[in-house]
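Sample entry was shown:

___
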Amino acid sequence: MSSEIIHFSKFQDLTYLDNLALFYVCNETPPSTLALAFLHGDPKVVGSMLGVLDGKRREYVHSLMASQKDADLEKKESAVSGLLIIAEGLLSRNLIEKRGNFYYGTENGKKV
């Protein structure tokens, strides 16, 4: 019996991450996956995530979003699932930690 807890089950769960945690998620996720997930995700969360990207990467993700806007819903949903798996992985590697209802990025696995 697995006692593993899933913390991120839907895109909106990422609203509980601070900017450093969002930065880690964005940097660990391939740009094409980000683009597809952003096309399917909550616009407020997408805006926050785009805001933590450096300029060149943000520009690249925007161009991928434009080229992939007609992608199948299944591909977009798969990208969101991948993004959530990456967030879970960062949590298990102590680069993101839960405090109360919120998640905070840590610096090299240490508390900020």
Summary: Helices lie at 19-28, 31-40, 43-52, 55-68, 73-92. The chain has a mean pLDDT of 92. The domain at 11-105 is CATH 1.10.220.30 (Annexin V; domain 1).
